[in-house]
Amino acid sequence: MALLSKRSTVYFDPVIHQALKLRAASTESSVSQIIDEAVRLLMTEDQQDLAAIAERVEEPEISYEALINELKAHGKI
Question: Once rounded to an integer, what is the mean pLDDT over residues 58-73?
């Protein structure tokens, strides 16, 4: 945790906070470490989502109405 140098105040629902404290105790880590890991995982997922979007940027767009009509025409709905 020595590498972490910025502080922030985060407010949790009391039940969530209790669950975080229990998880921290059972994993021998701190609430801060758990939150840091969760935020890093969230950012990694965002990065993967953005990469997937970038890969598909050349795909043609279709409106919702056109999609529904196509599904109906093919007997899907």
Answer: 96
List the one residue out of 29, 28, 35, 27 whose CA is nearest residue 11: 35
**Which helix (DSSP H) or strand (DSSP E) does residue 32 occupy?**
helix 31-55
Residue 75, sorted as left (phi over 0), alpha (psi -120 to 50) or beta, turns out to be left
According to the model, what pLDDT value does residue 5 have? Answer: 78
Copy the structure tokens of residue 27: 């994993």
Half-sphere exposure of 77 (CA within 13 A, CB side): 6
Minimal CA–CA distance to 35: which of 47, 24, 48, 46? 24
Question: Which candidate, 42, 24, 31, places its Cα nearest to that of 8?
Answer: 31
